[in-house]
Design goal:
With about 325 residues, this protein is an alpha+beta fold. The chain has nine helices and nine strands.
């Protein structure tokens, strides 16, 4: 009779835990803590499964031919399986919340979930085998040694592989975006597990290891972004008339807008900033907007040349730093 009472108590406690967790989940939702609420929802299901598992374990003594050793093994196996299932659900919710769905690759997201699932269920399998009395120490040692050898031999490849996975998961950039880093720039044509291919204006193909792309400071122009802003930088002489310089570039920009000489130039106010000053002069930065990334490369040299002519016409002494 007592095993049935213990089973009923296990189920009752599971229902109480389920109700309490549901109350906590509703409170978290009201506070807009959505990830925590989704994890609590997983724990609600886990509480019911633990209750069912506890009830089954409580009834094991009623099976006369099942020894106490095997009762303990069955109990540990049930607990391990429920824990593994709960852990995979929590990982799924955490990944779903952290992955940028608009930018991330669905294939990379699925692959990342698969890696997590395999790792969790492998650990669960090892625990169950050890519980059942299977000697797994030699197998674990062999797998560990083999993994170490493979990891050392493929260190660079694995580094690029996980860097590529990181790029695809986070959507740091994607195919079609224009990327600038170090001394390189170009349109992203392909992102593989090892490398990223860029195509610059020269139409050559630049193949960059993913590890470098993931660790570098990038300037990314989104393929779908509109408008796209580019900067032109000059160095003005310390004695230059800054107000006159601003007026010169603003008037030159207005003339380009009205003439329609530059296709895609956006009619919006220029953003003008002053940077560090030195004995040589003061950094003068002008930000100009075009409709999209495809029009930027034709517009930038024309705008640069027009601004230079306007500044020289206004007798502003300057040195071009970079475009």
């Amino acid at each position: 009779m007592f095993p049935f009472v213990r089973a009923a108590i296990a189920l009752g406690l599971a229902l109480v835990a389920w109700q309490l967790l549901a109350l906590v989940r509703r409170m978290l939702r009201r506070r807009q803590m959505l990830l925590a609420a989704r994890i609590i929802r997983v724990l609600e299901t886990a509480a019911l499964w633990y209750g069912i598992g506890g009830a089954v374990v409580a009834l094991l003594p009623e099976i006369e031919w099942l020894s106490s050793v095997w009762q303990e093994r069955v109990a540990i196996t049930i607990g391990t399986l429920i824990t593994a299932f709960t852990a995979t659900r929590i990982v799924q919710e955490a990944l779903s919340a952290s992955i940028n769905k608009d930018r991330a690759s669905p294939l990379a997201a699925t692959f990342m979930r698969s890696i997590a699932y395999v790792a969790i269920y492998t650990i669960a399998l090892v625990i169950i085998l050890a519980t059942l009395g299977v000697n797994i120490s030699a197998m674990v040692a062999a797998i560990g040694a083999g993994g170490l050898v493979i990891g050392l031999a493929l260190q660079e490849t694995l580094t690029n592989f996980f860097a590529g996975l990181y790029i695809l998961l986070t959507g740091k950039f994607k195919v079609g975006d224009y990327v600038q880093f170090d001394t390189y720039e170009g349109t992203v044509e392909d992102i593989t597990w090892r490398t990223t291919q860029l195509r610059p204006v020269s139409r050559a193909v630049i193949v960059v290891p993913n590890q470098r792309m993931a660790s570098s400071v990038l300037t990314v122009f989104r393929a779908t972004e509109s408008p796209v802003v580019f900067r032109l930088e000059f160095l003005l002489h310390p004695s230059a008339d800054f107000a006159q310089a601003e007026t010169a570039v603003v008037n030159a920009h207005r003339a380009l807008i009205e003439s329609g000489t530059v296709r895609g130039l956006v009619d919006q106010e220029l953003l003008i900033r002053y940077g560090d000053s030195s004995s040589q002069g003061v950094r003068f930065t002008v930000s100009v907007a075009v409709e999209n990334i495809n029009l930027l490369w034709d517009a930038r040299p024309v705008v640069m040349r027009t601004f230079l002519e306007a500044l020289r016409a206004a007798n502003i002494q300057l040195v071009i730093l970079r475009q």
